[in-house]
Automatic annotation (TrEMBL):
Membrane topology annotation: Multi-pass membrane protein
Protein's organism: Pseudoflavonifractor intestinihominis
Name of the protein in question: Phosphatidylglycerol--prolipoprotein diacylglyceryl transferase
UniProt-listed NCBIfam families: lgt
Biased composition (Basic and acidic residues): 314-329
Gene: lgt
Amino acid sequence: MINTVSFPGLGLEFTLNRVAASPFGFNIYWYAVIIVAGAVLAWFYCSRKGPKLGISDDDLTDLLIFAVPLALVGARLYYILFYLDLFKNEDGSLSFSRMLDVRDGGLAIYGGVIAAVIVLFFVCRYKKIPFLAFADLGGMGLLIGQCIGRWGNFVNVEAYGGLTDLPWRMCSEKIANELYAKGLVDAAGWQQVMDGTLGVHPTFFYESAWNLVGFLLIVLISRKWRKFDGQLFFTYLAWYGVGRGIIEGMRTDSLYFMNTPIRVSQVLGFASALVAAALWVWFYLHRPAPDQLWVHRRAAMEAAKAASQQADTDENRDKEDEDNGSDHH
């Protein structure tokens, strides 16, 4: 449960207990606490940013009721699909208890993103909101959640990269043992990781920092240069895809296509970034007039509805005055 992680080049050392608390003997893990914290902060920000994009609190709540649990399911299913052997019993049957046990991690971010996007599509259809307008807000929320969620990997001492001697190299006995078990280091390499002369890339931190920069970039675009619905979402897909594709190539625990050397998330990252960049350019070149942004269209519809209601109220008042006048006669 407890791991010591050091960054010898930076003079830092941390003793990490994966268990945050144990009320009534039930362990609550930091991994889950951090994931939830990321989701809560994403909701907090999006609830305040939403009206500026034409998305109300009710719209956001309706989405989150379905998206949060189904995104977690999607993230787990994605991981299980590509690591199926880890969830098999000795007789080859699937172990459903292991599938449900996420205390050691095992959530693939892309699975969660895919599930959330699918849920968003159906929520938008039901509420008659343009998908891309709502997705703009969703992209910002996802970056917040992903930025914070990666620190759950740090507490679990996972999602790290290959060997390096850079000043910010990360070392621990757990890492040394896992590298040795995978055949990535020999006995001498194991000792170098143990004594801190070699370490691994803290790729969890690389991705967290990349997501933070991406979030700040999208906030800037939303305030100064947003020209069409979908612009922020396409920026999110392109930014995250490029970063994930590069960082995934450094990791030692990637998911692979069956028994090939092709990293699933790396391919998905670069492919989604390419498609998003192409869509970004196409929409920008064919962007509609500014008043066609959903936030302006929704404001116009609500203003028209309010005016109609006011007209009905005035008409009813006039009718009542006429009736009262007739009664006096």
